[in-house]
């Protein structure tokens, strides 16, 4: 075989031949649809972030975070309650299928499925359309999550006695109390301690008596005739005991 003869070259049309480099087009080729990242886009992001930051700082200055009294595991009258953004989970744990022996379902399984669906959303619905009606799976899951969160939060908030909750968490001034005094023993023996606390700090059943600002005569009248949530006839004893008890309660002041 002579050189150059009998040889055939076959080209494959499926492989495109192009000398152009794969360089993305410049943003100027898409007028009105894109913009430069620096400084146009980044500056807008900074401005929006600054507005929200200033608004948040103004909100915290106008409405500071409420403080509660020091945590006390022995305070049976305290009403625990999570922050508002966890109220829906708090309400979920009240139902029979998510509490008691099924607490794991309410605390781990159901929230795990919800967050798992959120993580798998890009894989469950890969449609290119942006209209909610064209993406039924993603839209349905999102509407279901919003409806469940709003309903559970509303149910939880409507079942809370907010006045009693605020009273149980209120910061009460500490007082130097002589627990060996005759007045304190009467306070303890007559059952006052059950509603007003061992240090007169109050509870959900009775108000705090530290710095009450009442004179002994007014305290005697309340003990006999009642006031507000305190029914009449709560005190049972002699007039002398009532006088000593009233003087003791009136004398309790904060440090």
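Sequence proposed for the structure above (255 residues):
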């Amino acid at each position: 075989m002579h050189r150059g003869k009998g040889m055939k070259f076959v080209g494959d049309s499926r492989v495109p031949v192009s000398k152009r480099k794969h360089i993305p087009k410049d943003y100027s080729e898409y007028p009105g649809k894109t913009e430069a990242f620096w400084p146009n886009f980044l500056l807008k992001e900074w401005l929006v972030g600054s507005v929200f930051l200033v608004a948040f700082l103004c909100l915290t200055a106008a409405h500071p975070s409420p403080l509660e009294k020091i945590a006390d595991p022995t305070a049976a009258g305290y009403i625990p309650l999570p922050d508002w953004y966890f109220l829906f989970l708090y309400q979920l744990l009240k139902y029979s299928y998510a509490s008691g022996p099924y607490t794991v379902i309410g605390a781990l399984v159901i929230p795990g499925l919800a967050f798992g669906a959120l993580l798998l959303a890009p894989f469950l619905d890969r449609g290119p359309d942006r209209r909610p009606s064209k993406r039924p799976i993603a839209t349905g899951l999102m509407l279901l999550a919003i409806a469940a969160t709003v309903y559970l939060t509303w149910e939880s908030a409507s079942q809370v006695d907010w006045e009693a909750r605020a009273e149980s968490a209120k910061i009460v001034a500490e007082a130097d109390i002589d627990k060996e005094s005759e007045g304190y023993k009467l306070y303890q023996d007559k059952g006052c301690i059950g509603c007003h606390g061992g240090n007169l700090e109050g509870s959900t059943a009775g108000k705090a008596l530290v710095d009450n600002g009442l004179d002994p005569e007014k305290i005697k009248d309340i003990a006999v005739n009642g006031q507000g949530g305190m029914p009449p006839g709560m005190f049972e004893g002699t007039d002398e005991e009532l006088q000593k008890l009233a003087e003791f309660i009136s004398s309790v002041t904060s440090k």
